[in-house]
């Protein structure tokens, strides 16, 4: 047998060495590459985001099971919690209000939040995050309703916040928040039972006077008594202790249905709120001479109904054409009048007469006036002009008139920085869901009052509006599309992700 060729053996050895050397170099390169990327793979895998995988079947990016299906189901369930059989009515500390609060508390706990109910009946759910001593972000809305209400006013903001927190908890990120986040379901915003709005949020903001405990409803039950009936003992001392210290709060965010038609008209589900109009409520009393409808000649009557009608028509003209009636004497600048033209609304929502009989000239007529505008100076100018003309008209008709201010709230401007973040989160949320650029998120003014008005006295505030069908609210016809609920929840989640 011939001896092996030395030349052939060397070639084989050199070739083997070259291959082995190349493989080794490639292996080392791959290993280094993997070691560099490993932390990112680990983080992505732990959060289930790198491959878009699910937690128990939930796609990370979209969370339809939590932010849509479950949120819709919970809104429907909450909408059936009512003190009336044939319509939705849930007022401060009523039996239905307590049941609704218990439901919300259970859903907060399901989202991984620590919960409690305070001395004004507000329901809280809190995640402490990495640093419990940091200033907290508060997110909330109200759980009470008007009479014959819809399912979404107030409730939508609470459910969206809980759903977003649950989505964070489902991916193990709830405890990674850089600051505490607290969801609050305020016990009273509508003011139906005690005719005193913002009982819940005003207590948190430190605006509620202790005398509010003695306000009574039409049955003589006080606020304090209503709380006691719900096993909540509220004293003047612990009511004052409810106030959050400004240095403990980073900001307040509220999601709410628009209660108007703008978003539906532009075809987008979300809009940023730039501010909330200031509001004044008046009660006007007109007294005349009561008499027989068939025996008092027309030219001898002191009819408060006709006087009230003239005043109401004048109010409409004043609020439609404020520039025509308001002078430029230094009290009301031209810029103020211009701002009123874009935001001023005036409403007479209630009118009553005594003795209210078809064959009697009434002796007294009362009606309410609701004036709202973004410009507080302009709003005051409107009230001054209306009151001034009112007394002149009443003198001319020989009737007595009196005007009482029942409620005042200054306009609120939302925080610019917080608004920028919310607008960006809304844009990103819509893009995540649709896969398309939605364009610019609309910026709106709120003509309705919200808990953010009270909370603005405590901290900076920001708000998002959600499209509602036909702009209808305070009605059983109030409706929000399932996909719009999803968009709202996604916007809150996207905003919260900036705090990770």
From TrEMBL:
Per the record, the domain of life is Eukaryota
Gene3D superfamilies given for it? Answer: 3.30.70.360, Zn peptidases
Q: Name one GO cellular component term.
A: endoplasmic reticulum
Please list the GO biological process terms of this entry: purine nucleobase metabolic process
Cellular compartments annotated: Endoplasmic reticulum
Q: Which residues cross the membrane?
A: 27-51
Among InterPro entries, the record links this protein to: Amidase_Cbmase, Bact_exopeptidase_dim_dom, Peptidase_M20, Peptidase_M20_dimer
Q: Which GO terms describe its molecular function?
A: allantoate deiminase activity; metal ion binding
Q: Which SUPFAM superfamilies match?
A: Bacterial exopeptidase dimerisation domain, Zn-dependent exopeptidases
Coiled coil start-end: none
Top enzyme class: hydrolase
List the catalytic activities from the record: allantoate + H2O + 2 H(+) = (S)-2-ureidoglycine + NH4(+) + CO2
Where is the Peptidase M20 dimerisation domain positioned along the sequence?
A: 278-390
Q: Which Enzyme Commission number(s) are listed?
A: 3.5.3.9
**Keywords (A to Z) from UniProt:** Endoplasmic reticulum, Hydrolase, Manganese, Membrane, Metal-binding, Purine metabolism, Signal, Transmembrane, Transmembrane helix
Q: Which cofactors are reported in the record for this sequence?
A: Mn(2+)
Tell me the subunit arrangement: Homodimer.
Q: Belongs to which family?
A: Belongs to the peptidase M20A family.
The protein's name is allantoate deiminase
Organism of origin: Nicotiana attenuata (Coyote tobacco)
